[in-house]
Amino acid sequence: MHENPPRQGADGPRDTTEQDRRNALLKAGALQNAILNSANFSIIATDEKGIIQLFNVGAEHMLGYRADEVVNLVRPSDMHDPEEVRARALQLSKELDTCIAPGFEALAFKASRGMEDIYELTYICKDGSSFPAIVSITALRDDHGDLIGYLLIGTDNSVRKRVELQLNEAFAAAEKANRAKTDFISSMSHELRTPLNAILGFAQLVESGTPAPTPTQKRGIKQILKAGWYLLELINEILDLTLIESGTLSLSGEPVALAEVLLECRAMVEDQARQRGIGMTFARLEAPRFVKADRTRLKQVLINLLFNAIKYNQPGGHVTVVCTLGASDRVRISVRDTGPGLTTEQVGQLFQPFNRLGQESGGEEGTGIGLVVTKRLVALMGGLIGVESTPGVGSVFWIEMTLTTAPQSLASDPPELEVLCDDVPPDAPQYTVLYVEDNPANLELVELIMARRTDLRLLGAADASLGIEFARVYQPDVILMDINLPGISGVEALKILRADPSTAHIPILALSANAVPRDIARAMAAGFFNYITKPIKVNEFMEALDQALAFAQTDRGPALTKEPA
Q1: To the nearest 5 percent, what fractions of the chain are helix, strand and coil?
Q2: CB crowding 526-560: b at 16 or more within 10 Å, else e
Q3: How far is residue 315's CA from residue 175's CA, in Å, rounded to a whole number?
Q4: 28: Cβ–Cβ under 8 A, 6 or more apart, which residues?
């Protein structure tokens, strides 16, 4: 006899499963209803021809149309900015390499090919107003995979666009402020360098002039030059700091031979160390090492650390430079001194602008921003900088740079430096130099510098127009050109001279107080033979002039040569 299976009651397993199914359907229906009736985003569904079949509450709320006004009557393209949609369609036609009639259909065409995308489009409301929206377009297919329509889901993008606009305006304002600050510093640098040029230039002439100055005069001249070069250093460091902070300082990342850079730095600081009785030891590298850096700026960093180690050392002290390999392909360059050392508090204040750690009243001059510039330059080159110090023992300043491979081609032997002198053979050829300069003091300074050379004749022009005429008439061998001239600028004058066949061959040297790298790069790109910044360093100026004179003779005869002193 078979027993009947137990009857499932109202609360039995079967009823429970059915109830769960009904609850799930109700929940899904509620979710679908909530989605379709949400006012936060628009849902528009079309048939395969693009005619609207569904227009939810959000679409009504956003666009101002009632569903019965658009369903089976309107295409979505009628609700979007036609110019914007046309531009999108043209872009798509290029991407898909096919001809698509401009219109919203192009976007739907892309979706039908399975390339669904999200677009930033402008919705046009019933009242004619508009707002930016983010719209996604999806192709709808039946169970057989046939296309039956398109689904457009859009959200109001006004808030994000407004925030983007505010951010862009703030960024533009910050950029404008940075440019204004850089331009101001550049202008101030020029204005300060112009009188400094006269001060330092004439002081150098008096110091080396005939008859020789008296001992008292020499002491006075030495103080003038010392203060002048210090002021120039301050101007340069402030300019460097400004360029770094504004992000306009351009650095190269090239393989730099560490041994060569250290050798050059040693040559530049040894004389100062010798004068102060400071011994120096540079440890030799076991093998050639190359670091990724900007060569000029790396030298600037190392020379600053070396000068500080010499300047703040004790009498008869010592400076030691050591290179050690670290982890992750890095090398550490350490500069150790035997100075008084620093407290923990002083170390914490080291890299603050204009903070000289109480040395303001000491005998050593300094700007208080050298280490700030050094730290930021090291960071820009991808390096690290640090300091370890013990009061009464000394300090170790170190930088770490990334090692790199040697460049593919290395120069064989460095060129020998030309030895310059003011003595010129009596039978030396005569050269004419034209100086276009509106500042009488600068013109007089160059005139006195050249007066020491019997082979040079100087012509002066107070503005570019007169300078151009002088160049055409007198055919000088070299032209010195100020940049900031009244009327026509030095750069414009250069272009005019280059365009004239009678003067196109003459090398033109820029002689300017504009020392911003950006200005120098622009001038060199314009076609200047060389760029000399004021204040003039007499030896460097004469070397650049001789190079230009030698170049000028390549088309006229043998180049200018000089015998060593």
Answers
A1: 45, 20, 35
A2: bebbbbbbbbbbbeebbbbbbbbbbbbeeeeeeeb
A3: 48
A4: none
> Residue 555 in 3-state DSSP?
helix
Q: What is the DSSP string of 515-549?
A: --HHHHHHHHHHT-SEEEESSP-HHHHHHHHHHHH
pTM here is 0.42
Phi/psi at 204 (5° precision): -65, -40
Q: Which two tokens stand for residue 76?
A: 């979505």
Mean pLDDT, consecutive 10-residue stretches, the chain (565 aa), reads: 52 66 69 74 85 87 86 74 60 42 50 65 84 85 86 87 86 76 68 77 81 82 75 69 67 84 83 86 84 84 88 89 85 91 82 54 52 86 90 91 75 36 54 88 84 86 86 91 87 91 92 81 91 86 92 60 33
The Cα–Cα gap between 337 and 318 comes to 6
CA 246, 248, 253, 257 torsion-angle sign: negative
Contact (CB, 8 A) for 334 and 293: no
Does the structural domain 37-156 have CATH classification 3.30.450.20? yes
Residue 149 to residue 46: CA distance in whole angstroms: 5
User: What class, spelled out in words, does domain 173-246 have in CATH?
Assistant: mainly alpha
Assigned CATH topology for domain 431-555: Rossmann fold (3.40.50)
Written in H, E and C, the secondary structure of 408-463 is CCCCCCCCCCCCCCCCCCCCCCCEEEEEECCCHHHHHHHHHHHCCCCCEEEEEECC
Say whether domain 254-357+365-404 belongs to CATH 3.30.565.10: yes
Here the contacts of 108-113 (C-beta below 8 Å, separation 24 or greater) are 108/46, 108/50, 108/137, 108/139, 108/150, 110/137, 111/137, 111/138, 111/139, 111/150, 112/139, 112/147, 112/150
511 within 8 A of 532, measured Cβ to Cβ: yes
Tokens of 388: 């370890």
Q: Confirm if 306 and 422 have CB atoms less than 8 A apart.
A: no
Q: What are the residue ranges spanned by the domains of the chain?
A: 37-156, 173-246, 254-357+365-404, 431-555
Both tokens of residue 98?
Answer: 């096919």
For the CA atoms of 99, 101, 104, 106, the dihedral, rounded to the nearest 10 degrees, stands at: -10
